[in-house]
Design brief:
This protein is 30% helix and 29% strand. With 203 residues, it is of the alpha/beta class. The strands form 2 sheets. The protein has a 7-stranded mixed β-sheet with strand order 5-4-3-6-7-9-8, with helices on both faces. The chain has a 3-stranded mixed β-sheet with strand order 2-1-10. Strand 1 and strand 2 form a beta hairpin. Helix 3 crosses helix 5. The longest helix is centred in the first third of the chain and has 16 residues. The chain is globular. The site of zinc ion (ZN) has 7 residues, from helix 7.
Amino acid sequence: MISLIPSPDTVLQMLKRTGAFREGHFVYPTGKHSPHYFQMPLAFRYYDTARVLAVALSRKFRLERDISSQLPKIAVISPSSGGIPVAFGVRDALSAEQIYWAEKEANGKRMFRQYVNQGEVNPCIIVDDIIRSGHAIEETLGLVKELGARVLGCGAIVRFTSAPDKLEDVPIMSLVEFDAHMYDDETGCKDCKKDTPAEHVRF
Ligand SMILES: [Zn+2]
């Protein structure tokens, strides 16, 4: 079964082909500079690509006895809108019973979009499209624990290697582990030194 999971190179090629992974000279809204840019929803606009990525991630979860033995009484949870297509794809592949997603409120606090009560959320896996800092998935873990649910697994299509590789004792699965280069401003940026024109990106 493990052989049905595409290699990190294959996944990166899919992300490149769909425009979800680009190389160049980018400036983020935070002012940070980087030679690469991920906009994962561009990969998820194509149903076939979305399905291949979500099914691949779901296989990693299915290999975990603690998860497969509890199916279908599992919830798949996305920390943000970006993870919703991943959550639906993984839910579908696992035939998991529940799906939830969180959003950031105007006050900056992350909340579940669904009104849910203590004890209503099945043991869960948290999935996102990309884990850059790990803050979103950590905040979601906090929400899940407040609701009294157990986190059995978590994962994303891409995880930056600068982000944590586990949440408490739960390892973070991913299809690609990416060593992202980020510069706080133009002073350290190699592309600024070469006077390469920069593209300002929204996310
Ligand atoms: Zn730069």
